[in-house]
Amino acid sequence: MADRLLRSLVLWLLCVVSAQAVVVRDDRQVEVTLTHTPQRIVSLLPSLTETVCALGQCQRLVGVDRYSNWPEPVARLPRLGGGIDPQIESVVALKPDLVLMASSARGADRLRALGLQVLSLEPKSHADMQRVITTLSQALGLPDTQAQGVWRDIQAGLATAAQSVPASARGARVYFEVSPAPHAASEASFIGETLTRLGASNVVPAALGPFPQLNPEFVVRAQPDVIMVGDSNWALMRNRPGWANLSALQQQRVCTFTPEQSDVLVRPGPRMAEAAALMAQCLRNVRAVP
User: Fold this and answer.
1) Which fold has domain 166-286?
2) In this structure, what DSSP letter does residue 77 have?
3) Taking the model in full, what pTM does it have?
4) Residues 91 and 181: beta-carbon distance below 8 Å
5) How far apart are CA 110 and CA 187, in angstroms?
6) Least crowded by CB within 10 Å, which of 118, 134, 136, 237?
7) What's the topology of domain 18-142?
8) What is the pLDDT of residues 44-81, one digit of tens each?
9) φ, ψ (nearest 5 deg) of residue 282
10) Are 44 and 65 in contact (CB under 8 A)?
């Protein structure tokens, strides 16, 4: 009698745990089983940090990477390194019940070996961002409507930005530089997808990869109508061999972005609509004609 009662109790407990467990698939195509709703989250990628907050769950974050700087409450959290140098001991010391990090980040296996749940997500496109919002919402135990609302707001913002671009700027051939190597955002990148949504053209083809490093002569040959670049890169750009012959420089069809604006532009996160608005403003201001 006692044995049957014990077996029944164990079976009941297993059923309860199973009913509460959430299984999500991450970008490694690994199923991560969360037996309870995570309340102490470490995020080691800015776009994931911002997505947690966009879902209304900033209060669950207990630590972030060194680059996460939005929204404002994040600034008060412990800094735990970055994707290439996560501070493993510091992460473990915070006793998180979920660690969010890029699929390309280092340290994930070590964290798992130490008993932590790791969800590897790395959005690289608009479609990826929608998927990541949905996956994170499920992992956090939120209703589907929460993720749908965030994505709907992003789409509405993108549509508004596209509508604000004048006919004179549509079709403008854009060169978007993301770092001074120079690395550019091609048609295949999420930045390139946003430019396409705005009706612009990208001088860097998708075949080169999302963020290829270019020979500066490539840009001279491409002769873009508009250049978009962070203001920290701008001074270096003007001194490159042959770039004095770029009509975009000669006619001052260059948009420079502050470090804060650059953060918005280069992160495939919930502020993509804000990024689109910045690009649309640039296109309006230069009134580029192909």
Assistant:
1) Rossmann fold (3.40.50)
2) S
3) 0.90
4) no
5) 36
6) 134
7) Rossmann fold (3.40.50)
8) 999 999 999 999 999 999 999 999 999 999 999 999 99
9) -60, -50
10) yes
